[in-house]
Amino acid sequence: MTPAALEKRQRRDALAIFKASLEAALPARGIERLLRVDEGDLHAGPYRYDLSRYQNIQVIGAGKASAAMAHALEKLLGRRISGGLINTKYEHLAKLRRVELNEAGHPVPDDAGIEGTRRIAQIARDAGPDDLLIALISGGASALLPLPAEPVTLAEKQATTKLLLACGATIHEINAVRKHISAIKGGQLARLAAPATLLALLLSDVIGDPLDTIGSGPAAPDDSTFQHAWDVFEKYGIIDQLPDSVRHRIDAGRRGEVPDTPKTGDPCFRKTRNLIVGSNRLAVDAAAAKARELGYRPVVLSTLIEGETREIAAMHCAIAREALHSGRPVKPPVCFISGGETTVTLKGDGKGGRNMEFALAAALALDGIPGILAFSAGTDGTDGPTDAAGAFATGSTAARARTAGLNPQQILARNDSYPFFQKLDNLVVTGPTGTNVMDVRLLLAGAPKP
Predict the structure, then answer these.
(1) Is the pLDDT of residue 450 over 70?
(2) Helices 354-365 and 417-424: crossing angle, nearest 10°?
(3) Are 17 and 31 found together in one domain?
């Protein structure tokens, strides 16, 4: 197989493997697998709910996949649902009959998000002891549930979010801060909903699937504190750059002047349950199965990958090069697979996202080396503030770019990966996928067996 033919084949296979991972992570799959109605009872994993005892069943929540989750739930419960409201990212929609959709901003919150969250909070407050609330939480819920705790304003919360994203803070660190400038995150939705019954269905976009971190844990006990949030500010040296209201609230909280988020054992969790219906692990498992079907030896590196995107890309490419060169840790044809979510420390003013930056860094690490294709994409269909899910690169990508008048090193320094791959026709564009379980990365090495 010629290098050009191999590259074409690997490109096609990578897209097929990624598609299989998306299908496995669809909310409908998870809801169908874990939820069923039998003789008037809702069975949700290990939990059972007698639907006849509830006066009202309302659906609330937020996230980029929450509309798709609501669609699957409506299919299951139908007219039993009294109503409800979901905050979802613009254009991440589904056809619903019983639950209202409110489109809002992500990753930076906007006024539409704050108004929708106010209404969600009111639904929770109004719920009584004979009501069932089902909260649908998926990736993006942190930004899509923006109800600032007074006196913090939305603009000040937006500024804080932008600051944290720009300095390369991890999702855990960002969520620790968000919970403590929010009136609904960090278990506070459960506090609002009590004494109603609350079932939270979670599509995890967080490494390790911790309940208190998915969507900033609106229905889960919060282990983080005001002191943790303050430590994040100190770690990145941004205390003096924070809005005054944010700095004063976190400082007052760590000194005990503001009540902290509810912890394990709080009475508000007595009738609250959290259930994970989808995760990155399911997506990666499906990718491995598809790779094997296409003639590759699948090797799952980890579903817990995090860290600086460029460094992660260099590590992945080194593993693939070793396999191609020496057959270690496995002989080609091989498909190395990883999941999780990396971070980008912004140093330039370009347009891109962590997956496209991974591919651009991989293009430099593989420069001139035939037989390897690197692929990285977000399972929600969006990478940063773009319409692409990610991108792919091979050993010929950097040379093609130079021929087109592009300097890959300079473009990487500017974090300008989107126009780079757009010009080379190497973007992965899926549109909204209806799911969100972090990222899937693939390194295909060698020609697959027939």
Answers:
(1) no
(2) 70
(3) no
